[in-house]
Amino acid sequence: MDALTHAIEAYIGNSTTKETRADAKRAIELIFMNLAKAVHDGNDLDARKNMLEAAFLAGNAFSQSYVGYIHAIAHSLGGQYNVPHGYANAVILPMILEAYGEHATKKLAELAIVSGTSRDPDPAVRAKAFIQAIKEMKSVFSIPDTFKEIREEDIPMLAKQAAHEANPLYPVPKEMNAKELEQYCRKLMEDGHGN
Ligand SMILES: [Fe+2]
pTM (2 decimals)? Predict the structure, then answer.
């Protein structure tokens, strides 16, 4: 799920190259075809080999084209509560893709085709289907939508750190300030207002 987040954040950011776009797309295609297989059967060496390649390609993409707010918030939670990095990204991923709204629609619609999720002619429908497919993937892997670790009193600091990491370093599709990020950190709280 970390590799998937690398590929998606690199692809939807505003600082891509032809090579990083191709690497991210291939990584996403491989992840959608192989991750569930590798999780369900650790002896499926083909699936694991393909995931190894996907992780490498996604890493190549983000090391040149950066990540975004999903990683920024995951790093914040990792630093404060030791939440494992890939797990944190997986929990946060669909929520922030939805938060980007129309700013990420075109690119997410392209990823819907790459991932085999939807070929609907309407890009907005395809983008939504892609996010929904990630939610379903999370559900299959029993990954929740919230963190039990988040404390209300920590939210301003968590959001501030995430905003500081992302701006101006990450070429995110849509900039969000610390106040906006607080609202998303609150949604990630167990018993929070969002989930
Ligand atoms: Fe990562």
Answer: 0.97
